[in-house]
Structure formats: C-alpha cells, structure tokens
Amino acid sequence: MDHVDVVIVGAGISGISAAWHLKTMCPGKSYAILEGRDAVGGTWDLFRYPGIRSDSDMHTLGFMFKPWEEARAIADGPSILNYVNQTADEHGIREHVRFGHQVKSASWSSQDAAWTIEAEHQGQQVRLSCNMLLMCGGYYKYDDPYLPDWEGMERFKGTLIHPQLWPQDLDYQGKNVVVIGSGATAMTLVPAMAQNGAEHVTMLQRSPTYVVSWPSQDKIANTLRKWLPGKLAYALTRWKNVKNDLDFYHRTRTEPETVKAELIGLVEQSLGSQYDVEKHFTPSYFPWDQRLCLIPDDDLFDVINDGSASVMTDTIDCFVEDGVKLASGEVLKADIIVSATGLQLQIMNGVALSVDSKAVNLPDHWSYKGMMLSGVPNLVQTFGYINASWTLRADLTSEYAARLVNRLDETGNTIATPHLRAEDQDMPARPWIDDFPAGYMQRSMHLFPKQGDRNPWRNTQDFGEDKRLIRHAHIEDDVLEFTRAPASHAKSKAA
Q1: Cα–Cα–Cα angle for 435, 436, 442, nearest 5°?
Q2: What domains can be seen in the chain, in order of their start residue?
Q3: pLDDT tens for residues 129-181?
Q4: Backbone angles phi, psi at 293, to 5 degrees
Q5: What is the C-alpha to C-alpha distance for residues 151 and 156, in angstroms, rounded to an integer?
Q6: Taking the alpha carbons of 247, 250, 255, 257 in that order, is the dihedral positive or negative?
Q7: pTM > 0.70: yes or no
C-alpha cells in the first residue's frame, strides 16, 4: 500500500492552499492530493453557468501568497479558475494531484499513527496511508444540488435546470427565463442572461436579500500596483479590504438599524423613487444576520432599470405547463426555469471516518478551533467563512496544519488529538454555524459537529479572532494532546 506523510482531499482553493503551505513550511514531507474530478479548481471548475463570478473581492479570495494582478477585483469564474491553476503549476503542486480519486472512507489506527484511505478510481478501489489527513473538499455535494419538490413540476413543458448542473448547450436567446432564488447565484444569473440575449429574466424570490453594489475594479489596488512591488501592493490591499470588511461587519452587530437604512438607501438611489424597494429589496432581518449579496457595478439594478429583468417577491403555488403559478394567482410565463435554490451542505466530503474501528458520528464530536474534532487524531478540515472570503480561513487552516506537522516532529510525537478538559464536560452545545438562519445552513446543521461556548471549542466565524486563536497562539495547549504511537516506527516518507 502506498504511503505519504500527508493526504489532502480536494484540489480546489483549499487544497491548493494546503499543498503550498506544506511545500513551503514542511519541505521534507511527502504528500498527495486526492481529487474526485479530473481538474484542478473545485467550485470554479464545476460551476459553468452564465456570468459565474466571485462574490468576494479577489484580494481576499485570492491566496495570501500569490498576488491577484488583474484589474478586476470582482472577477469572473474563468479568471479565478486560471488563477488557481496558475498557482498549482507555478509551485509544482499539480504533479501531486491524483485525479479521479473519489475518497470513500478513512480509518485511523492509533497503533500505527496512520490513516488508511480508500478511494475509487476508474471503478477500482485504491488504498493508501498517511500520518496526517487534511480535508479540503469544500462544503457541498457536487453532484446533488438542492431542489425543492414544488407541486406540479412534472407539468412544466419548458426546461428546468439547476445552476450546479448547467447544460453547456442551453440556448436561452429570445426566451423568457424565471430564476428562482435571491442569493448570489440568482443575482449573477439574472443580469448575465438579461444582457446576453434572453427576452426577459425574472428573479422570483420568496423574500428579499440585502444587495450591495460595489465597483468591479479596486482603484486603490490598481494604483498601488503601479507604484509598488506586486507582493507589497497586494498585501496592503488585502489588509485594507480585510479591515474594511471586519469594520463593516462590526457595525452590523453594533448599529444594525443604521446600517440597514444605509444599505436600503443605496438601493433606492440606484432604482429610483418609483421602484418598490421596500417590497423587493428590504429584508425582514438585519444585515449579516444572513449573507449579503455583492453585485458589481450596479449590473442587477441596470437590467431592472432598462426593463430586461424584473424582480417578483411571492411564493410558488405550483408549476404549470407554461411557467409558475404564484400564491397571488399570477402566472409567470417561462420557457426556462432556473432553480437557484441553494446547496446541499456536506462536511468531510461525505467520507466515512473511523477511529480504531469505531465509526465517527460527526454530531457527537466537538469542533476544536473550527478545524479539528474532539477524539479524532491527526485530522484537520477546512471550512471557510460565511461572512467573509473563504480563502482567509483556508489559508489560516493550511498554515496551522503545517505548523502542527512540524511541531509533532519537533517534540518526537506522532499523534495530536483534541480532548475535552474536565471543565468542558458540561459545556452547552451550540450549532457549528450559529445565528445564521439561511435555509441551506439550517437544513444540514444537525449533521455537523457541535461547538461550545468557550475557546478553543468555538467556531468563531471571525477572522480577527481566528488569527489570534490559530496563527498567533502556541500549537500546544491544555486541550490538544500529543502522544507517540506504540509502533514508534510509524510510517514516514513517501513511495
């Protein structure tokens, strides 16, 4: 059986970050990336719907170690995919990727201080072992998007699709399109299809979302790049944007009414006094109680103003042959219906985990610093932020994993396992993502690990706090136990 020091599951942004940190900080360690698909890029290779783009600026969605050098900070999907692939090639990471390897299970042996990974490759079972397992495969099921069971769906004579499974040959020229949803995907699709040949596009939402228009180009970043070395300009821009985002998020917690009024006021400026902003763009919750949607350069508002798109706020009664019947009785005519209704969340890539032959039931375990699990050795998982760029957390997690690998070597140990302290035994359990009532989260939180009410058992969703808790804190604490396997010759070095 093949053996490497570290196995990384997933070759998207998180996996490439993990590989770079390992190569840079642990140059003597061998590693392999197991990727279920046949390409590097993860989300950015999977999604191919019209207008696919980032909803975070690329100075924070980009890697901390590779400057984003394009003028557009709100970038399109192909540009991001190219950036991730460039990173993999520039740092010799691609040669470590084993494509078409769908990981099915991972079993830990304390006797050997090793994980045994079972994957499926071209219909055959493949096994390999490692000392450290990094789960970097994202947070949703690639082949199983969320699709509500609307009444009468079978009656609809047109085309019903989900953005996650977008058909590349879809012709929407001159067609009436209804996009169901009010999240980032819907707000990307509507202007893209309206501007590129659809007869009319309607965004059908059950309730409004906060929408913030932002320049697609960061003028300060582009100016800094003209006068400063690329890495310095990028670092300064990244610091600026992170600080601005954290400051804004803090204001939503301390001045929710004021921030709400400001955001709604900006929408009113863009759509005019005659538009019913209260009905279509004024949520019932405060900003960042759920995710805000970022649109570049007013693109959604522009297509609403020119009449090529519209927003309908209502609930679906049923599907009919030629569209959707609403609770109000109105029928939205459609040739194409796009169900931009969200994701099916998944943690640990759906991999079946076991420790010393005992199955790991994730909800029974506590989340250690949002990265490891109580009672589960030598496993680090990446899960980004819901209120900031995914990559900010991915880079922090990757850096921590590399430090952990090195610290085990430095102390002569082979196993790192978080354990509850005596004072933590009666700790109240909270959902892994707390106080975020978005439907796609609430549908799946019962399947996730739990978090506590104190560090290091909190999953903070706060980049500033996480830097202190993860980057600047010592690896050893009174929770993370270091031990050595009985088989002290535990495997190292790769084939």
Answers
A1: 110
A2: 2-142+344-483 (3.50.50.60), 153-339 (3.50.50.60)
A3: 999 999 999 888 888 888 889 999 999 999 999 999 999 899 999 999 999 99
A4: -105, 130
A5: 10
A6: positive
A7: yes
